[in-house]
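Reading is simple: the token line describes the chain's fold. The lines below illustrate.

. . .
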Amino acid sequence: MIIPNSVEELATYVEKGRNVFFFTADWCGDCSFIKPAMPEIEAAYPEYTFIEVDRDVYIDVAIEWGIMGIPSFVVIEDGKETGRLVNKLRKTKEEVTAFLTSVKS
């Protein structure tokens, strides 16, 4: 999982490639629930690069992208959003993989 160091670096992942943006925060219990499953999810979808976006560090990006709850996932391929799993609910590994499979199809 890539953790960008600046908004400029984050923007480079939006512009090119097949990327999954994982919006999270240290204080978020539901984020902590899904984090241990993320390495397995990443391994199951090698065609994607996963980018961890700390909602508190990149609050302006979260607002601009309409991220109202975390954990949330946004898939962007070469600058175009192709899917989003954005809400305030806890997500299971099965829900995230079902979402990524539906986007991939």
